[in-house]
Amino acid sequence: MKSSRSWPEKLGRALCVVAIGALVSGSTLLARSNEPAGQAKSDSNGGSRLHVEVTGGDPAAPVDSASVYVRYLVKHRMAKDETVEMNLKTNRDGTVVVPFVPRGEVTVQIVAEHWKPYGQKYQITQDEQTLKIHLEKPPKWY
C-alpha cells in the first residue's frame, strides 16, 4: 500500500518534528543556564533598598517636597535594554525610600524649589544603602 502523502509533505512534517525537538531541548538548556551557580552570581544580580536623605542650608535642615529622580539601566539578554526612571518626593524629614534598585550604577537627581539642582551617579553595592545629599542655595541674580 502506497502512502497518500508526497515527499515534500513528509519532509515538511519531519522538519517540524526536528524543530519542536530543538526548541524543547534549547529551552531546557536555557533554564539550566539561568540557575544561579553560586552565591556570588546571585549577589551581583540582586537588588538594594536605597534611602536618600536630602538636607540644605548652613544648619543642614531637611528639605521636604523635593523631587528625587532615580534612573538605572536594566539589561536584557534578548531584548533591547531599558532605562527605568522613578520620580519620588521627600517627606518632612527630607527622606525618601526607593524599595528596589538593582546593584550597579544609578543616577540620582534632586530638584527642589529655592535650591540649586543636584545630580550625580552612584554605585550601589550593598543590600541597604543610604545617600546623604546636601543642597546649596542658588547664586543670586541681580
Radius of gyration: 27 Å
Topology order in helix (H) and strand (E) letters = HHEEEEEEEE
Helix segment tally:
2
Largest sheet: 4 strands, mixed
Uncertain stretches of 5 or more adjacent residues? 32-44
Compute the number of strand runs: 8
* N- and C-termini, Cα separation: 102 Å
What is the beta-strand fraction?
35-45%
Level of helix content? 10-25%
- Structural class, by secondary structure, is alpha+beta
Overall residue-averaged pLDDT value:
81
* Shape by Cα distribution: rod-shaped
Textual characterization of the structure:
With 142 residues, this protein is of the alpha+beta class. The protein has helices at 7-33, 39-45, and strands at 47-56, 61-62, 67-74, 82-89, 95-102, 104-111, 118-124, 128-135. The strands form two sheets. Strands 1, 2, 5 and 8 form a four-stranded mixed β-sheet that branches. A four-stranded antiparallel β-sheet has the order 4-3-6-7, with no helix packed on it. A hairpin with a 4-residue loop joins β1 (47-56) and β2 (61-62).
